[in-house]
User: Fold this.
Amino acid sequence: MTRVLVVDDEPQILRALRINLRVRDYEVRIAPTAAQALEEASRHPPDLVILDLGLPDLDGVEVIHGLRGWTKAPIIVLSGRADSTDKVEALDAGADDYITKPFGVAELLARMRAAVRRTGAAEDLPRVRLGELVVDLAAKRVIRQAAVPAGAAPAAPPEDVRLTPTEWHLLEVLLRNPGRLLSRNQLLTEVWGPGYADATGNLRLYMAQLRRKLEPDPARPRWFITEPGMGYRYQPSPDDAD
Assistant:
């Protein structure tokens, strides 16, 4: 049973989430303050945290920092703060996703399922299929091979898609975080290094190059999604795992 810690100072939200999650067989614990959240998490380590930022005793971003000091459990921020600055700050602190209030329970449940699925999934998916492309993370190779019916001969031999080292590094970071919203700062620091946190032009350029090489329609990307004002997300299809 998945253990969920819900942190929010609004009693009606705590009650609604506890009811909705328990009926779906989640084990739910609640905390209305940051102090109680950190204590509860240490006593009963959660598999997933749903966190409001506007807590009465401490900002939710500080809670993220506190949790990230010892746990990799997914953290989904559920907040009334809609400004992109707040979203980026939470993501940079270590949150995995961000949903703005008011929210739909169905969307939250879908985000929760995705977060739980991808926990530890990076090492389990060394090969990822993107339509006609197969990305072999272990071999650092992208191969174009059109799908053919069982027993039929391939229409054309496999073809390597050439990526630069920077393109490959960016692709690898995205694929190893399926479904997770990665902020621009996270991607720039991971791919280029700490001194490039403000080089957003580099990131836009290389994302455009990746899409031209990997997306069927770069103008309407299927897998590499832009979250305006926040960052990028690799959104897998159900059949992407090879």
Observations:
- The mean pLDDT is 87.
- Residues 178 and 234 are 5 Å apart (CA to CA).
- The chain is about 35% helix and 20% strand.
